[in-house]
Amino acid sequence: MSGAAATRGRVAIVEVGPRDGLQNEARPIATADKVALIDLLAQAGLTRIEAASFVSPRWVPQMADGAAVLAAVARPPGVRFAALTPNLRGYRAARAAGADEVAVFAAATEGFSRANLNASIAESLGRYGEVAAAAAADGVALRGYVSCVTDCPYEGRVGPAAVARVARDLARLGCGEIALGETLGRGTPDRVAAMLEAVLADLPRERLAGHFHDTGGQALANVGVALAAGLRVFDAAAGGLGGCPYAPGAAGNLATEALVAYLAAGGWESGVDAARHEAAAAFARGLKGGGGERA
Ligand code: HMG
Ligand code: MG
Questions:
Q1: Is the pTM of this model over 0.90?
Q2: Mind listing the domains of the chain with CATH numbers?
């Protein structure tokens, strides 16, 4: 439809490039470069930025400087900075570093939970109960991820019921928002639709976010399916950065610039300035696999 006016409503983008994107880069990236990327993203109008992880530095060395990153980023009013936390220790470190929001991350399969967290799903949820209690006491927003919502690198295809169960468990723990992680980027729109139908049987659409990796080039089509199902929050990474160190074969996240353009073409407002975002995307691409491209 040509000349579509921005009348369909608002869609929020959660920028995960500085975390989900950079965590997968093998070569060390300077703290100053991470900070520069995050500042460019905020300048482009992104108001939710997942900036760091407070996980084991032995498991993900690239994220070891999370506190330094959060200490150095500009804090424009209206921008929320989130951090990934695998346990109470991570939660406390994230809060001490000034994270506005924290995210815990469970999986729909035992295989991925074990590879990513060295814990069963039940054990991970036990840890997240502790994080949720602390976050509730502190009045901190808590997000919960479910990984492998259609496919798992260790167990293959994942049934919608397993996803719905973990999403429900995270919601019960106190996660205000549940991000449905299509970790491998191999999910097709029909399978994403079936997964969403199962999750939406238990949880309202307002509590769900779509997190699509783009290995198979289907991420935008999957956003389309999720929009049709009523979801209004989507994760993306500048420059299509990304992957997960514990998901072999997974490529980058959906590129934020592609999502911004897709939403604008469909008449949705994202609040992101596409021209300004190009500077962030170019900088992000420069961080990928070496070589810095200063904006
Ligand atoms: P573990 O080895 O089972 O447990 O790790 P541990 O208690 O023995 O801890 C290992 C080491 O980490 C110890 O230090 C701990 O003190 C330390 P060491 O004795 O080796 O010197 N440690 C910590 N250090 C800093 N911060 C902490 C922390 N906790 C323990 N919070 C653990 C268990 C959960 C810690 C580990 O498995 C881990 O860190 N996993 C995180 C893996 C990760 O970050 N994966 C990528 C993010 S998930 C993702 O990308 C998917 C997503 O994007 C959605 C999607 O796409 O599907 C979210
Ligand atoms: Mg991810």
A1: yes
A2: 3-287 (3.20.20.70)
